[in-house]
Every structure is written in structure tokens, then in C-alpha cells.
């Protein structure tokens, strides 16, 4: 099975159908490969052999009976370690949850299982999904499989790395400010942040509830759309999950793009590295040749997005992380009184970035500062969301870079949190507006580092976004 | 914007978060830097803007609110809910003594 590292979902299905291999063989090979690769990248926090092999047995039985093994039947996948997996340790990259074993599956995980996917492991990530480089994991940083001295991006760095290195065909991540798209761009894979409410967050360990999204990573657009189709749709266990029907992405994305209007937000082409800009412009040329009409648009409140985002996300994080108090979630520091026990447990088991965000969030919500920071940020969020609805009223989709630069060196930005926060400038806006957005590979720099092109569309118009991405990919993308 | 070590200690107390002296020092520096950046929002006039408190609501295509009905569904039993607790007993979470006798 030497092709495992480059398998697409369609190739896995064809291999199973024509009996080139069984699902059990595939599961074992994927697990062996993941174990062998992990010392290089540290992309997995843990492997789930029993889960994968049990699912594989069921897939093989279905195939033997002549039944459909499911949309993702026999496909080896990984799941970011912030998604709850029943009976399989879920650490969130934190010492706080080192021994935490969920009693239930996240809905997205349950739907993967129902679709026949083989979950081979839990992907490493920044602690509680807070970070842009995967250096904030208590289980060590993830190294980028394309360049081992560089970060894979974050916070879903492990989920991107496993797909890039080939140990999983697809994976799930979560995106609060770019945590799917930025690592996808750094590792040269496809990453999708669907509309807010498109995928249930039940069982996703909460970071910032008005911004958290669950979405897929894959090696091509078709696979990413397939995984999204498997996990999307209303879930009664998540009150924020939407009733809107899920499109038939496989049909919709194959529609031609000639005549589509693509907007390029001018603010997203200021202050980025020249090589990244060149690649995105080359990508726009490909779309132009496919018959798209490219026009400049403006998202005027972009300069305020970082401040707006880091106020809202830290406020929500400080509230969500209050539950880790030494009572219900395994870790506890000994102390004589209850309040000392709370404070000591949190001081001992949270990493520095979590502490920083809890502190910022507590401050912006505190008496006397709420109006100046939190309420103000919510108003600015309205302006940023309106920027997008105004721009998308005149075009079908927006195209921009994902990150101002490609993967940076491990350790390069750790000393200065503000510099790290500023690197999220092009991705946080999509989360603030709640619209679908994705990263699709758009060539490599002279040093061989992948660049990602970002595509945005309107609420619940994932089909439009996939259509642009699929046409771009089928046309050969950018070298 | 200035952020003193005493400011850090005050907020840490509100957040039930024990910090070491080194962390207090680092935090004072980082919070001053980040909050200074955040203060740029005050330059925007938002007097006629409504805050965005929900991402999607009310519009039929984005509806996410169900009818308010009671559902009889127990997701976790007591034993399962307690399984991840730091300390439990007699069907309860156990914590250090709160009230002195």
C-alpha cells in the first residue's frame, strides 16, 4: 500500500471495492505509518487503534454483504484533540485534561463514525485551540511535514500535518480565528471553515462560542466537500446549529465558473510578503482564464479586526474556561480551601497562552471596562460583518491570501504575543462574520513553502466557494 | 496603556488564577501591549451601531431556534458524569470544606 500517503477518498473506496486491500489492512497500515512518522512531526497526541480497527471490521463486513460502507467507508481520518471521542482520551493539548476521557462523542465525530470513517488518532493542537503555530501544546510543538524546522500553523496544526504527511486521508479541525485555514495554507492542504451553525459543535470543547467552527482538512477539494457533507446539518444537541438544508456539494462544485464575479478585497493585499502576493495574483489569473470576472472590493473595517477579535475571543474564553476549576475535569491541585483549590489548580495546569487569554478576557468583561472593550468590540463586529455582506452583494465570492507569509520558523514569534496575534489578520474576519471560507493550495515559494488562497462566500453558500476552489484546482492551480 | 503588577494581581483574583511572580511580571508587560492595541477601537464612532450578540438568528434560512418543548432525555447518568471528577463519593463531586463547623 505504498500509495497510502497520497490516497484520496475516491482511491480508498475504489481499492476496497476492487479488493486490493481490506479496511482492516488499511487501518493497520495507516496506524503503522502514523506511528512511524510521529517522531518527526509530533502531529498525533494519541492513536486510537481499537476504534479504527473496530470500525474497519464493520466496513469489511458491510462490503462482504454487498452493502454500501458509507460516504467515508474505510477512510482513515484523524480528529483534532478538542473534539470529544467517547472512551478515547481528549486532552485539548492541555495538562488540565491529561487524564480526561469523554463519556460521549462529539456530533461531528459520531457522524464520521456513521459514515464509516476509521478514526486512527487524535491530532495535536494548541492548548484549548489558542494559538497560531501549534507551539502552545502541552504535548510539544508540531513540526511542519513540508519543512521540519517550521511550524505547521495553528491551532489545528496536527490536523493539517497528518493530511500533508499522508498518515490520514482527511481530518477534522476547529476554527475560531483561522485555526483551520492558516495551518491548511502552511501545510499545502485544503481546509474548510463552514458557515457558523453549519456543523454542530456539540462535544467540541468550547473556546469562544460565538466564533467556534468545526470543519475538514483534505488533500483535495472533492474530499473536503465529502467530509463536510458527512458532518454538516442540524443537530438538536446544539442550539446554534442551523436548520438550513445541506447542499449536494459533489454536484454543485462541478458547475462551471465562467461568468462568476470574484471580489478581491484591497485591504488584504496590503502588508503581505511579496512572494505570497505574487502567488495569489497568479491564482487570480487562473480564475480570470476560467472566465471569472475579477473586481476590486473594499472591506473598510479590516484594520480594526484584530482588536475586535481578541476582545471577543478572550472574553468568551475566560468564561468557557471557568469550568476547569479542579472539580469535574480530572486535574486538581491540593489546597486547604475551595477558592485556593480553584486558583492553584488553574495556575498549575493551564499554559501561558491560556492564562493570558483568561486574564485579558476577565479584564475586558470586568466592571468599568465592559462598555469600552467588550460592548465596543461587539459593535465593531457588526461593522465587519456588514463589510462582508456589502461586498458579497455585488460578487459571488471573495478571494484573498490566507496568511501574510508562509510557515515561519519554530520559536520565531513565541516571544511576542502581539506579533503572533497580528498574523491572524486575514482569517479572523471570516469567523467574525460567520461566513464560509476555505484555504486551497496556491503554489509554493522559492523556498518550497506552500501558499494558501482563501475563498469566502455568503452564509450557507459553501457550494459557491467549493465551485471556485474545484475549478481552480482542476485547472491546475498555481505551480 | 499602563498595566501594573497590582492590576495583574487584581484581575488574576477575579479569574481565580494563581500566578507566579515571574508570570505576574510577564503578564503586566503583555497585557499593556495587547490592551494598547485594543484601545484603537475607541477611534471608531459606533454610536449608531447595534452590537452583534448573535451570529445568525431570525432569518428563515439561518434559523437555529427550535420550539420550546421539554425533552425527556438523559444524556449522562450519575456514574458517567462523575467518572472524570478529581474526587467523588456517594454520587457527588467532592471539594475541600467550604463551611467551618
Question: What does this molecule look like?
Answer:
- The complex is a heterodimer of chains A (about 475) and B (about 100).
- Helix content of chain A is about 40%, strand content about 15%.
- By secondary structure, chain A is an alpha/beta fold.
- An eleven-stranded mixed β-sheet of chain A has the order 1-3-2-4-6-5-10-11-9-7-8, sandwiched between helices.
- In chain A, helix 2 (about 25-40) runs antiparallel to helix 3 (about 50-65) and helix 10 packs across helix 13 (about 370-395).
- The longest helix of chain A has 24 residues, at about 370-395.
- Chain A is globular.
- The relative contact order of chain A is 0.13.
- The model of chain A has no long low-confidence stretch (mean pLDDT about 95).
- By secondary structure, chain B is mostly helical.
- Chain B is about 35% helix and about 5% strand.
- Chain B contains three helices and two strands; from the N terminus they run αααββ.
- Chain B has helices at about 5-15, 20-40, 80; strands at about 90, 90-95.
- A two-stranded antiparallel ribbon of chain B has the order 1-2.
- Chain B is flat.
- At the A-B interface, helix 10, helix 11, helix 12, helix 13 and helix 14 of A face helix 1 and helix 2 of B.
Shape of chain B: flat
Regions with little confidence, pLDDT below 50 for 5+ residues of chain B: none
Content of β-strand of chain B? under 5%
Instruction: State which percent range the strand residues of chain A make up.
Output: 5-15%
Low-confidence stretches of chain A: none
Number of strands of chain A: 11
Give, in order, the helices and strands of chain A.
Answer: HHEHEHEHEHEEHHEHEHHHHEHHEEH
* Major beta sheet summary of chain A: 11 strands, mixed
Provide a count of the helices of chain A: 16
Amino acid at each position: 500500500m505504498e500509495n497510502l500517503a497520497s490516497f484520496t477518498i475516491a482511491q480508498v473506496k475504489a481499492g476496497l471495492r476492487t479488493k486490493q486491500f481490506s479496511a482492516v489492512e488499511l487501518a493497520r497500515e495507516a496506524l503503522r505509518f502514523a506511528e512511524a512518522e510521529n517522531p518527526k512531526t509530533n502531529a498525533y497526541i494519541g492513536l486510537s487503534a481499537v476504534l479504527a480497527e473496530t470500525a474497519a471490521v464493520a466496513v469489511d463486513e458491510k462490503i462482504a454483504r454487498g452493502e454500501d460502507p458509507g460516504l467515508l467507508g474505510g477512510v482513515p481520518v484523524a480528529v483534532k484533540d478538542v473534539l470529544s471521542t467517547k472512551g478515547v482520551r481528549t486532552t485539548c493539548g492541555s495538562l488540565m485534561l491529561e487524564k480526561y476521557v469523554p463519556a460521549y462523542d462529539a456530533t461531528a465525530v459520531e457522524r464520521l463514525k456513521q459514515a464509516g470513517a476509521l478514526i486512527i488518532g487524535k491530532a495535536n493542537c494548541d492548548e484549548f485551540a489558542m494559538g497560531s503555530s501549534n507551539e502552545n501544546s502541552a504535548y510539544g510543538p508540531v513540526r511542519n511535514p513540508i519543512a521540519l524546522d517550521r511550524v505547521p500553523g495553528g491551532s489545528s496544526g496536527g490536523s493539517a500535518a497528518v493530511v500533508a504527511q499522508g498518515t490520514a486521508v482527511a481530518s477534522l479541525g476547529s476554527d475560531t480565528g483561522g485555526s483551520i485555514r492558516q495551518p491548511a495554507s502552511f501545510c499545502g492542504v485544503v481546509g474548510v471553515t463552514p458557515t457558523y451553525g453549519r456543523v454542530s459543535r456539540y462535544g467540541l470543547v468550547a473556546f469562544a462560542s460565538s466564533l467556534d467552527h468545526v470543519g475538514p482538512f483534505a488533500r483535495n477539494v472533492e474530499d473536503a466537500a465529502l467530509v463536510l457533507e458527512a458532518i454538516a446539518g442540524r443537530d438538536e444537541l446544539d442550539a446554534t446549529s442551523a436548520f438550513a438544508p445541506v447542499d449536494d456539494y459533489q454536484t454543485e462544485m462541478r458547475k462551471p465558473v465562467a461568468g462568476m464575479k470574484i471580489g478581491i478585497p484591497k485591504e488584504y493585499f496590503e502588508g503581505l510578503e511579496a512572494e505570497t502576493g505574487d502567488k495569489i495574483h497568479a491564482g487570480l489569473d487562473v480564475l480570470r482564464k476560467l472566465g471569472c470576472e475579477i473586481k476590486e472590493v473594499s472591506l473598510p473595517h479590516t484594520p480594526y479586526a484584530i482588536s475586535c477579535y481578541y476582545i471577543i475571543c478572550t472574553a468568551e474564553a475566560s468564561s468557557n474556561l471557568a469550568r476547569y476549576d479542579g472539580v469535574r475535569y480530572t486535574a486538581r491541585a491540593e489546597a486547604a480551601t475551595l477558592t485556593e483549590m480553584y486558583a492553584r489548580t488553574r495556575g498549575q495546569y493551564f499554559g501561558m497562552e491560556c492564562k493570558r487569554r483568561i486574564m485579558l478576557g476577565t479584564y475586558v468583561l470586568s466592571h468599568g471596562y465592559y462598555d469600552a472593550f467588550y460592548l465596543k468590540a461587539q459593535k465593531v463586529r457588526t461593522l465587519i460583518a456588514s463589510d462582508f455582506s456589502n461586498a458579497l452583494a455585488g460578487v459571488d465570492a471573495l478571494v484573498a491570501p490566507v496568511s501574510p507569509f508562509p510557515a515561519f520558523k519554530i520559536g520565531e514569534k513565541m516571544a511576542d504575543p502581539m506579533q503572533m496575534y497580528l498574523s491572524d489578520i486575514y482569517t479572523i474576519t471570516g469567523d467574525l462574520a460567520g461566513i464560509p471560507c476555505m484555504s486551497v493550495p496556491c503554489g509554493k515559494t522559492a523556498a518550497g513553502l506552500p501558499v494558501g488562497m482563501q475563498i469566502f462566500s455568503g452564509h450557507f453558500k459553501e457550494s459557491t466557494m467549493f465551485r471556485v476552489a474545484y475549478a481552480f484546482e482542476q485547472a491546475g492551480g498555481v505551480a | 496603556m499602563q498595566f501594573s503588577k497590582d492590576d495583574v494581581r487584581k484581575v488574576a483574583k477575579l479569574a481565580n488564577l494563581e500566578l507566579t511572580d515571574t508570570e505576574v511580571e510577564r503578564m503586566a508587560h503583555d497585557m499593556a501591549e495587547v490592551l494598547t492595541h485594543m484601545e484603537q477601537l475607541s477611534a471608531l464612532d459606533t454610536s449608531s451601531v447595534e452590537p452583534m450578540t448573535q451570529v445568525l438568528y431570525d432569518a428563515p434560512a439561518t434559523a437555529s431556534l427550535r420550539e420550546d418543548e421539554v425533552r425527556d432525555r438523559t444524556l449522562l447518568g450519575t456514574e458517567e458524569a462523575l467518572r472524570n471528577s478529581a474526587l467523588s463519593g456517594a454520587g457527588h463531586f467532592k471539594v475541600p470544606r467550604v463551611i467551618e463547623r
